Amino acid sequence: MKKRIIITLSLLLVGVLGAAGAVGYLAFVRPPANPPAEACADGRKPDARPTVVAAGSSSTQGTLGADWVAALRERPEYREYEFVNAGINGNTSTDLRQRVDTDIVACRPTAVTILIGGNDLRDGVPLDQYRDNLGAIVDRVKSRTGARIALMSLPPIGEDLDAELNQKLGAHNTVIKEIATRTQVDYLPVHERLADLLRQRGGDPAPYDFSFLLAFGAATQHYLFGQSWDEVARNGGRELHVDHIHLNDRGGAIITELAAQWLAT
C-alpha cells in the first residue's frame, strides 16, 4: 500500500511539473509566430510581398496576453502582407536598439510599428537614456529603409491611472510624442484609447500587484484550463489586463485596430 501511494504521488508530481513546464514554455520562452530569425535571417528578396515589422517587448510578442500582431495578420484586407513579430519578452529600449539591424532593417520592411518602454520604466532606466535609445532606433530605421514608421504610446501599467507608475509613464509617452514629431513619423495613441476605456469603467480599480506568480497564474488559466485572456482578466477583477501589465483580448483589439487604420492610410 505504501509503495502504491509513493508511486501515485510521484506520478502526480511529474504531471504537475510537466504541466508547469509546458505553461512556462508557452508563455515565457516560446518565440512568437514568424519572428525575424525565421523571416529575415537571410535577407528578403526585393520582390517579396509587403512586410510589416512589429517591434517591441512582451506586449508585442503576445505569448502572455493578447497577440495583437496575429489578429492583424488574420484580417482579410492584409492577407497579402507578411507580418514579422519582433517582440521579445522583457526587452527594454536598449535591447531593441541592439537588434534593430537584424530584427527590423534586415526584413526590408514596408512598415514598422514600435511599442517599447514599459520595461524601461519598471527597471528604472533614466528617461534621457530611453529618449536616446528610442530616437536612435527610429533614426536607424529611417536611414536604412524606406519604411513608414509608427510609434505607439505605452499602455497603462495596472488600471489605477492615478497610481505612481502611471504618473511616471506620462513622461515616457511625452518622449514618444516628441520623437515622433522630431523624426516626422506617425504616433498611435494606444495609451489614450486604453485609458479612456478604464475611465469609463468607474468604481475603484484593482490596485497594482504584478508579480511573476500572478503572470504564471494567468498563463496557467489560459494555456492549461483554456480560458480566454478576457476571462483571465475578469477572474482577477480587471478590465484590460491579465496581470496588471499584459493586455487581454479586449485591450489587444484596440492596438490591432489602431495599427490596421494606420496601415490603411
Note the topology:
Elements: H1 2-29, H2 36-39, E1 51-56, H3 58-61, H4 68-73, E2 82-87, H5 93-98, H6 100-103, E3 111-115, H7 118-123, H8 127-144, E4 148-152, H9 164-183, E5 186-188, H10 190-201, H11 212-223, H12 229-235, H13 249-264
Description:
The chain has 265 residues and is an alpha/beta fold. It has 13 helices and five strands. Helix 1 crosses helix 11 and helix 8 runs parallel beside helix 9. It is globular and about 65 Å long. The N and C termini lie far apart (71 Å).
Note the main attributes of this structure.
Rossmann fold, globular, 54% helix, five-stranded parallel beta sheet, 265 residues, alpha/beta
Summarize the structure.
The chain has 265 residues and is α/β, with parallel strands linked by helices. 54% of the residues lie in helices and 9% in strands. A five-stranded parallel sheet has the order 2-1-3-4-5, with helices on both faces.
CATH superfamily: SGNH hydrolase
Q: What percent strand?
A: 5-15%
Order of helices and strands: HHEHHEHHEHHEHEHHHH
User: In CATH, what is the class?
Assistant: Alpha Beta
Number of domains: 1
Domain SGNH hydrolase-type esterase: 56-251
GO molecular function: phosphatidylcholine lysophospholipase activity
Region (Disordered): 39-58
Protein name: Lysophospholipase L1
